[in-house]
Amino acid sequence: MPETAPVILQMDFPFSGPWGEEMAAQLEGLARDIAAEPGLIWKVWTENAEAGRAGGVYAFETEEQAHAYLTKHTNRLAEFGITGIEAKVFRANTALSAITHMPFTASPGA
Amino acid sequence: MPETAPVILQMDFPFSGPWGEEMAAQLEGLARDIAAEPGLIWKVWTENAEAGRAGGVYAFETEEQAHAYLTKHTNRLAEFGITGIEAKVFRANTALSAITHMPFTASPGA
């Protein structure tokens, strides 16, 4: 665990699918690339087919790494024709999060 | 891990502190209550002192439990005089999240 509290980035954007398993099959390569992102502790991939939005929640070791990734991913999404990104950055409260079952350690990945 | 994908709830609201360790000391009791919430897998507590906002990212086993908690927590925050809540609900993509180091298992808690 990093000495300072992890930084939480939440972002989402308009998305027209695919969803679920089909989304996973299509974006597996991107996921493996993101898994190696500097400072990434974890990313939860999020999707809402009814709202037509997808995105993710990320934990990074530092605020600089979170912002660098946000810029990089925003540019990558623009190449896919995706705009209208909504993003928020927070610091995690590790003491309270530990009580509510959130371990800030990365798994080995799949 | 539940058979269906976990539901991710992200919410935040105007907050004037306290922050960090002081926040953790003040809200430890609330955290222990939330840790026992039906269907909660984990909650990450989020804070942004510069933006004057705090909240959390939650994983629940079902959409019904996520929405029930959102209603309950919105009412609880209103009792504290807190309004202006922004909330989003998504389904997690577990296959992609596993690649990016996100284990959907609860820790024993602190």
Automatic annotation (TrEMBL), chains A, B:
Q: Which SUPFAM superfamilies match?
A: Dimeric alpha+beta barrel
Classify the source by domain of life. Answer: Bacteria
Classification via Gene3D superfamilies: 3.30.70.100
Q: What is this protein called?
A: Monooxygenase
